[in-house]
């Protein structure tokens, strides 16, 4: 290979993240070019290494902070529950309202911190998944049960059309987390007393597709490409009113993809939205063994 060919090949390697050095020594203009390229390659490699270390330290710091913030919130919520149940004596209506505010606020903050912690773990590949053989129908029923109180408060109709047992291998707690996140988003997007949310499943030999469909306000075309980005919020005014960190859908995406699936959304403004995610099957789970 010619000297220029060697230099060109090295530049392509640097462009692709392989910070090679050109092994040509001469005192002419080519030699000076080689010195500059080798110096640039070494500098880029050094800066990238520093950036990785900074990113690692940032991730470790955020994980520690979110964990430390989460620790005191659990007993705060727990003691609020104990007070509301009257274990230390009956509360009057005024006291009960104040304690309910404490419980609701601590729960909201705990959910936010949990989302931050999960997002950080997903980013560094440390979110643990415990894959076992599960019944998708049972998983959906558990998620619906967890959201029953909230949909009842807003008088929203939540239903599912799953009749048969369908088995697949996945982390059930994490898939329930995905489902409850999607249901919460649908609740925020629909109007109380008018909202309808339906969960349905499409079964195939290779995967199970789970969809959460609502008749809410829908999502604009511009937002569809960004909807799964961290901290992205379709409607910031709605977020201020109903709460939300903008992390839920990015966490859903991370959980689904970590388990080998995919997640997507179909929506138009004023036409509601349908979020669909897949759970891959294997030969063992297809037979329900």
Question: How far is it from the N-terminal to the C-terminal residue, by CA?
Answer: 59 Å
For the sheet with most strands, the description reads:
5 strands, mixed
| Broad shape | elongated
What's the gyration radius in Å? 26 Å
Treating each run of at least 4 consecutive H or I residues as one helix, how many helices? 9
- Percentage of residues in DSSP E strands: 5-15%
User: Based on the structure given, which CATH architecture of the largest domain is correct?
Assistant: 2-Layer Sandwich
The helix-and-strand class reads: alpha+beta
Query: Total strand count, please?
Result: 7
Rounded mean pLDDT is 84
Low-confidence stretches: 236-241, 283-289
Main CATH class of the largest domain = Alpha Beta
CATH homologous superfamily label of the largest domain? Histidine kinase-like ATPase, C-terminal domain
Widest sheet: strand ordering: 2-4-5-7-6
Could you give the order of the helices and strands? HHHEHEEHEEHHHEEH
The CATH topology of the largest domain? Heat Shock Protein 90
Q: How many structural domains in the coordinates?
A: 2
Question: Can you put this structure into words, describing what you see?
Answer:
This protein has about 290 residues and is α+β, with helices and mostly antiparallel strands. It has two domains: about 1-125; about 130-285, Heat Shock Protein 90. About 55% of the residues lie in helices and about 15% in strands. The protein has nine helices and seven strands; from the N terminus they run αααβαββαββαααββα. α1 (about 5-15) runs parallel beside α2 (about 30-85) and α3 (about 95-125) crosses α8. The relative contact order is 0.09.
